[in-house]
Amino acid sequence: MLGVGQIGRMAGLDVCDYGRRDSSGVLVASGTGLMMGLMDAAPCLRWCLDLDTSKDDRAKEFFLRLIQTEAAPIVIAGWWMISDPTPVRNALRAYQRVDHVLVHANVELSERVPSLDIDDLVSRLASWQSVAPREPTIRVPVRQSLHG
Questions:
Q1: 95: left (phi over 0), alpha (psi -120 to 50) or beta
Q2: Percent helix, strand and coil across the chain, each rounded to 5?
Q3: What is the pLDDT of residue 143?
Q4: Beta bridge partners of 144
Q5: Chain centroid to CA 35
Q6: pLDDT tens digit string along 25-34?
Q7: Is the distance from CB of 3 to CB of 25 less than 8 angstroms?
Q8: Distance CA 46, CA 136 (A)
């Protein structure tokens, strides 16, 4: 299994690791302010990615598809004024299970995952039972990335 950080590097995305958190949660956000606020409020989130920092939709979808078995919870939050939500929708459609996915958005991202208001999202994150991330069993050099 790959780790979230390695998947981010393979996709060529700038995934931020709040390394001193004993959790495997990932926040994927459209909007830095929302991202920073949620990361401060939810110690169950270890990694975060601001989708607005990349224009590569293929890389975003690749990252989201691969983290589905590596992270819990996976939180997707944002207002989608800059980034196109299509890669997020495509990835969520491919998820085999969504019980570990939480969404706060102004657009529908998945029929299977309803959007929560911000208070409900923060409340659920506060009660989330963190699970320490598994150590990656495969080391992938950065040069073997999605981009060549």
A1: beta
A2: 35, 20, 50
A3: 47
A4: none
A5: 11
A6: 999 999 889 9
A7: no
A8: 15
Domains and CATH numbers, the chain: 4-126 (3.40.50.261)
CB 87 within 8 A of CB 13: no
Alpha helices in 1-131 (DSSP H): 4-11, 32-41, 57-67, 86-94, 118-126
78, 110 contact by CB (below 8 A): no
Per-residue pLDDT, 138: 47
Nearest one of 59, 57, 112 to 82, comparing CA atoms: 57
- What pLDDT shows up at residue 1? 64
**AA letter at 108:** E
| Strand 45-50 with 101-105, pairing | unpaired
